[in-house]
Design a protein that fits this description.
Elements: H1 2-10, H2 12-32, E1 35-37, H3 39-49, E2 52-55, H4 59-64, E3 71-72, H5 78-81, E4 93-96, H6 103-112, E5 118-121, H7 124-130
Parallel strand pairs: 1-5, 2-3, 2-4, 4-5
Helix pairs in contact: 2-6
């Protein structure tokens, strides 16, 4: 542990550059997959602009509880089923996953297939549930 503190003390510029680059990496990755929106922004976007909610969790998790009107295409099947979403290219697309980790990669794939307005639910279904918003169970 003493060696770590000595290294940091002797290489503070290197450590600062590393932290900056790490921070820039996470910001860049987040933006490539679509802007993050809150639960209240999601509700507004659906009501005012007819946004499509794409739930990328597996079918079992989707059946246990999902947002009303959400379309379920699991993260693992997005490459083979992306054509099902072509009718919604002109609408805002909001990606939802369990905690927000898979929606970014799906967002990048959608953008490469011509979807322009792609957004991610910040915190995923965990945030939706924590906000005590309604779930549909099938």
């Amino acid at each position: 542990m003493d060696q770590l503190f000595e290294f940091v003390g002797n290489n503070y510029i290197l450590i600062a550059v590393f932290i900056f680059l790490l921070f820039a990496f996470f910001i860049n990755e987040g933006k490539q997959g679509g802007a993050a929106i809150s639960t209240s922004n999601l509700v507004t976007l659906v009501n005012r602009e007819g946004a499509v909610i794409l739930d990328v969790r597996d079918s079992k998790e989707f059946g246990a509880g999902h947002i009303a009107g959400a379309v379920n295409i699991p993260h693992s099947a997005i490459d083979s089923r992306i054509g099902e979403l072509d009718a919604h290219k002109e609408k805002p697309m909001v990606l939802v996953c369990k905690m927000g980790q898979h929606s970014s990669s799906v967002g990048r794939k959608l953008k490469t297939h011509g979807f322009e307005d792609v957004r991610r639910l910040s915190g995923g279904m965990a945030e939706w549930s924590a906000s005590n918003l309604p779930l549909v169970k099938t």
